[in-house]
Each structure stands twice: as C-alpha cells, then as structure tokens.
Amino acid sequence: MARMQLDEIGKGELAGDVGKCDALYNLGLMYSTGRGVDVDLVTAHKWFNLAAMQGSDAARMCRAELTVEMTPAQVAEAQRQAREWLANQ
C-alpha cells in the first residue's frame, strides 16, 4: 500500500467510493503493524475508528484491541484526529 494517507485525497474522490471502508481499515492495519510506516497507535486508532464508522466490524475489533494498549490521552487524541479528518471532508 502506498504511504499516502486518505486525507491527501480530495472529498470528491472519496464520494461514492465503494472501497472507502476497506481503505480506512487498511490504513489502520498499516499504522498498527508498521507496514511501510513507523508504528503509530494513535494514527492506527484514528483510521480504525473511521472505518468502524463506515461499518467495518474488523475495524471495531482492532480499535478495541488497540485501546487496551493505549493511554486515555492517546485514545482522546486519536478521537480528536478522527473528528478533525471528518470535518475536513
């Protein structure tokens, strides 16, 4: 997967994209495992959260697993970043 993040893609390009949920989930996997990027649990949680909001049960499970490993401040930051990403779409 390319190292680009979905927030670099324009809103119009995401509209109607059937694979959006999968793309968000894959970004979560990428950041949670360090596949092609440094491991970043906050960023991984953000992408899993966004994928879960699109209906991904797998993302919900991954997000829950990450939450156990994170501090409350990290979870709050991930949620803030997810809200910010949504606001800019």
Structural summary, described in words:
The chain is mainly α and 89 residues long. It has one domain. Mean pLDDT is 84; it is low at 1-16. The radius of gyration is 12 Å and the shape is globular. It has helices at 11-14, 20-33, 41-53, 57-69, 72-87. The longest helix is centred in the C-terminal third of the chain and has 16 residues, at 72-87.
Mean pLDDT: 84
Low-confidence parts: 1-16
The total of beta strands comes to 0
* Count of separate DSSP helical elements: 5
What profile does the largest beta sheet have? none
**Outline:** globular
For the record, the count of structural domains works out to 1
SS-based class: mainly alpha
Radius of gyration: 12 Å
Tell me what portion of residues adopts beta-strand conformation. Answer: under 5%
Helix-strand pattern, N to C? Answer: HHHHH
Helix content percent band: 55-70%
Distance between the termini: 22 Å
Question: Could you state the oligomeric state of the chains shown?
Answer: single chain
